[in-house]
Design goal:
This protein is α+β, with helices and mostly antiparallel strands and about 575 residues long. The structure holds adenosine-5'-diphosphate and magnesium ion. This is ATPase.
């Protein structure tokens, strides 16, 4: 370690390589103190610490650039987590979720950062458990004074804060063992509950005692002093979970379910909880036992969105322009056509459960009552309302719908069950609704089938495969090179890391040939899912050094569908 004296501030001669150990790193940082910032580059590569290795993967060029990136590997023996905590992929995801949150708390006041996520436990690149080895990916904002290296602060971050966080956050013997175990068990229970839904012919389950409302639109933590959920007696059912044992709550069966009730009584809150029932929530969230089928998709109106060669003919026919609505494209969809396209796309992608809320739906796509049918002849109305398609959609395609509809009673004619929210309490009012529905409204049905839709074959040239820059703007938008994809209306996205994951996955689907110009959208998504099952986060990308999470197929499809450069090459009937 003779290079200590070789402190050539800003000079040309490189520092001779240090021994690549923790001490070597410390010495090198000390020797670089005051040198020009660019010399941080010499830290790239592996450093062997006591019990873990640090790999510096990407060094920022200047103090104002995005943080540098590194990876820590704590081998299984040193980490010491009992194998039952990572014995299956779900438990391993739970363990990673617990650890990354522990490390995040430890690093709060340091220059190191880790993407821990919030209420949902996603499969994310920032922490992975591989056969008991803990792999953690961090950002480090390399400290500078002006354009020179602040070696002292760098030493604090890399030689003290980092080893402390690893020692206290990523090892079983220092961990809050009970908390970690409860976290992993809880995630496994949520997942097990969700997996049991299809065999019980349910689309969703909301446990007694669940807390549904959130603190605010920007704070996803549970509302304090909320009224806990309690199932109507008639819908109460029980599940056996691997860790908690038996739980009870409301089962929402397949078919058509309406949520009614006065304004401000908690309808949308229930629906939103169902929307997020595709995720496993952290213990204490209140939604640990609120689940829906994994293929549940929320749809809404989204005027202005792009639609690319979608078969919206079940909903839209004979437009005044004479457009062929089985091959419908627009750069600027209306409320109703955007929602029609989103429903068709969800079905195309393989969803078996749709969620809709009157608050965000296009009225003219949802309903057309008797008087309006009387006044406007069917020949001059291109739209067939969802009201007349919702039943055939289930009968023929087995796609269930749960929708909030407080403003129109017409849906009582087609509903299998009606839930009412009254002061945040849930009641079943199916019988009363049936009674009312026996009095005819005078309206006549406008459709008796939901025809098969055409499957689109996307062209791989839709996506720039030359590794375009992938960036997320919160959960609102994805930037792929020069193109921006609006995702604000894709409401089941909860984390910017998912948006990055979508961008990377799109590029990699095109690069790897999953998206090959022969597979349909659904086949591409099937192939993607199979890759994710096999390779986890690496199926999304295995070179990217930033943070991302594995996206769900439906959000991947939603982004593809909104991509303004999407080209659909062919159809398969
Ligand atoms: P609706 O869709 O019926 O008009 P919302 O679901 O938007 O009503 O709820 C209205 C308000 O009530 C929201 O501010 C929400 O946070 C609050 N809220 C919903 N459910 C509960 C509950 N279980 N306990 C306490 N407050 C709730
Ligand atoms: Mg509402």
């Amino acid at each position: 370690m003779a290079q200590r004296t070789n402190n050539n501030r800003g000079g040309r001669a490189p520092t001779p390589p240090a021994k690549r150990t923790a001490e070597g790193l410390r010495d090198q940082l000390r020797s670089m103190h005051g040198a020009s910032y660019g010399r941080y580059k010499s830290l790239s590569g592996n450093w062997a610490f006591d019990g873990f290795t640090l790999e510096v993967q990407k060094v920022q060029p200047d103090p104002y650039a995005p943080a540098s990136r590194c990876e820590v590997r704590v081998d299984a023996e040193h980490a010491g987590f009992p194998s039952d905590l990572w014995s299956n992929p779900v438990r391993a995801r739970g363990l990673a979720g617990a650890l990354v949150r522990a490390v995040h708390r430890r690093l709060r006041d340091s220059r190191l950062s880790v993407d821990a996520g919030r209420q949902q436990v996603l499969d994310r690149s920032s922490c992975q458990i591989v056969d008991g080895t803990v792999v953690l990916r961090l950002g480090i904002d390399m400290p500078g004074r002006g354009r020179s290296i602040d070696g002292k602060q760098a030493e604090q971050a890399l030689c003290r804060d980092l080893p402390d966080a690893v020692e206290q956050g990523l090892r079983w013997h220092t961990a809050d063992q009970q908390r970690v175990r409860e976290f992993v068990d809880s995630i496994e229970d949520t997942d097990a509950l969700r997996r049991q839904l299809p065999e019980r012919n349910l689309v969703a389950f909301v446990a007694d005692g669940a807390i549904l409302p959130r603190r605010s639109g920007i704070d996803d933590r549970p509302l304090q002093q909320a009224v806990p959920f309690s199932s109507p007696e008639s819908l109460r059912t029980e599940f056996d979970l691997p860790n908690r044992g038996r739980v009870s709550g409301m089962g929402i069966a397949e078919g058509i379910s309406l949520i009614v009730g006065g304004g401000f009584h908690g309808k949308s809150t229930l629906l939103r909880a169902l929307e997020h029932g595709i995720y496993d929530h952290v213990p204490g969230d209140g939604r640990e036992l609120v689940v829906c089928r994994e293929d549940t998709v929320k749809v809404r109106a989204e005027d202005g969105r792009r639609v690319n060669r979608v078969d919206v003919s079940p909903f839209v026919s004979h437009l005044p322009t004479g457009t062929d609505t089985s091959d419908f494209s627009t750069d600027n969809a209306s409320g109703s056509t955007s929602q029609a396209a989103s429903i068709v796309e969800a079905v195309e992608a393989g969803s078996k459960a749709l969620l809709l809320d009157e608050d965000t739906a296009a009225t003219n796509l949802m309903i057309r009552d008797a008087r309006m049918q009387e006044l406007v002849a069917k020949d001059s109305e291109p739209l067939t309302p969802f009201l007349d398609l919702i039943r055939p959609l289930y009968d023929r395609h087995r796609v269930s719908t749960v929708m909030v509809m407080g403003g129109s009673g017409d849906y009582m004619d087609v509903a299998d069950r009606v839930l009412m929210l009254d002061s945040y309490r849930c009641y079943e009012v199916t019988d009363r609704a049936r009674g009312l529905a026996s009095t005819p409204t005078g309206r006549h049905r406008e459709a008796d089938t939901f025809p098969d839709i055409r499957s689109r074959v996307p062209d791989p040239r839709s996506i720039d495969t030359d590794r375009p820059k992938v960036r997320s703007r919160g959960t609102d938008a994805l930037t792929l090179g020069q193109t921006t994809v609006e995702l604000r209306a894709v409401e089941q996205l909860v984390d910017p890391a998912q948006v990055t994951g979508i961008g990377l996955a799109l590029v990699n689907c095109a690069r790897s040939g999953l998206l090959d110009g022969r597979r349909t959208v659904r086949e591409v998504l099937d192939a993607f899912d199979a890759e994710v099952t096999k390779r986890g986060v690496h199926a999304v990308d295995d070179r990217y050094v930033g943070d991302f999470a594995v996206p769900r197929r439906f959000e991947l499809a939603a982004a593809l569908n909104r991509l303004r450069t999407l080209r659909v090459g062919a159809f398969r009937e």
